[in-house]
Amino acid sequence: MDTITATGSGRLTGPRTVYNADHEMFRDQVRRFFEKHVVPHHRQWERDGIVSREVWRQAGEAGILCPMLSEEYGGAGADFGYSAIVIEEIARTNCTGPGFPLHSDIVVPYIEDLATPARKREWLPKMAAGEIIGAIAMTEPGMGSDLKAMRTTAQRDDDHYVINGSKTFISNGQLADLVIVCAKTDPAAGRKGISLICVPAGTPGFTKGRNLEKIGLHAQDTSELFFEDVRVPVENLLGEENKGFSYLIRNLPQERLVIAVRAAMGMEVMLQKTVDYVKERQAFGQPVIDFQHNRFKLADAKAQAAMYRVFADHCLALHLRGELTVELAATAKLLGAEMQNKLFDDFLQLHGGYGYMAEYEIGRAWADARVGRIYGGSSEVMREIIGRTL
Ligand SMILES: Cc1cc2nc3c(=O)[nH]c(=O)nc-3n(C[C@H](O)[C@H](O)[C@H](O)COP(=O)(O)OP(=O)(O)OC[C@H]3O[C@@H](n4cnc5c(N)ncnc54)[C@H](O)[C@@H]3O)c2cc1C
Q: Smaller CB count within 10 Å for the chain: N or C?
């Protein structure tokens, strides 16, 4: 198997200014963690269709999970830059199995912002320790992009909600110990009738379907979830009833930035791997890079990856200041996912038949990247969001 060579910082654009020295020290720590606890096991996890529970606990111990969570709940109270570094190291190692960013940067913030104090004390320290793994369930078999069309309901019954419905494509779904379920508490009110309710695994009536077989992200577990008269106490509601949609919208920029940060690093790393490969590989008596067509392809790729890196870092800097808009986050997600898919396809082509072999990273990265245009809001939905601002 080929090895990882790119360092990740400044290779395309010169020194990056979005991170400080403390961030870079944290990067060293995260990098050591991935090289020791993730990289050696990842091919096995791809065969298993799931990562080990152990790596979650190891990540918790190493302080890799929930960097932004406040210290009183076991986090580091750090900024999103630390989360971005974890995301970049996932992209750098091409180890897409551990759903750490979904847990740390998407699920946990909802709970920290919106759960009752008692629930925060109960769940958050364990989430920081990797003992409780989180997931969020919005998508249903009949709808994904159009959230207001969801059919899962949560009916109030005294001091409980009774949840009925099903969800699909839920990341971390098999491993999840706690799922934020998006459900209609006022079915007649469209998007204004959606609430977010936490459902612990093991609650009677809550079952997990099979681990879905995907064309990429083979080490990441993705599941159907079923809810049949699932009773959870009203204290499991996040924030206020019927405000779920606005909470989702509020957190989406960060979710989309996760995808953008990963795309920027993915392009940088896979470009370097491809350059290494075409320098070695010979065809018609010369290295493949010596054909002008291929050099030009790679020059274009480098120029685009450099431009995207600057833009992604700009969005990251805005987010660190609390100024990333829904529109810019959508722009970053759209461009990152589309450009990454285009470039990875070119990179795979430059590897010839080896690119199509699972043992070469570019083939796996190409398949993994495809979902970037679909989840977190599809590219078409991103264009709708941007289009509305014209
Ligand atoms: C690997 C993976 C992991 C996922 N993880 C999660 C998760 O953890 N939690 C979760 O809730 N969901 C998750 N999803 C679901 C994902 O968010 C949805 O698949 C996505 O939102 C698209 O919804 P859909 O599949 O229902 O497609 P649809 O909404 O049915 O869309 C079908 C097509 O129509 C297009 N379309 C839709 N609306 C418009 C429009 N207004 N204009 C133009 N075109 C449009 C779409 O872009 C797409 O091309 C995951 C999906 C995958 C594949």
A: C
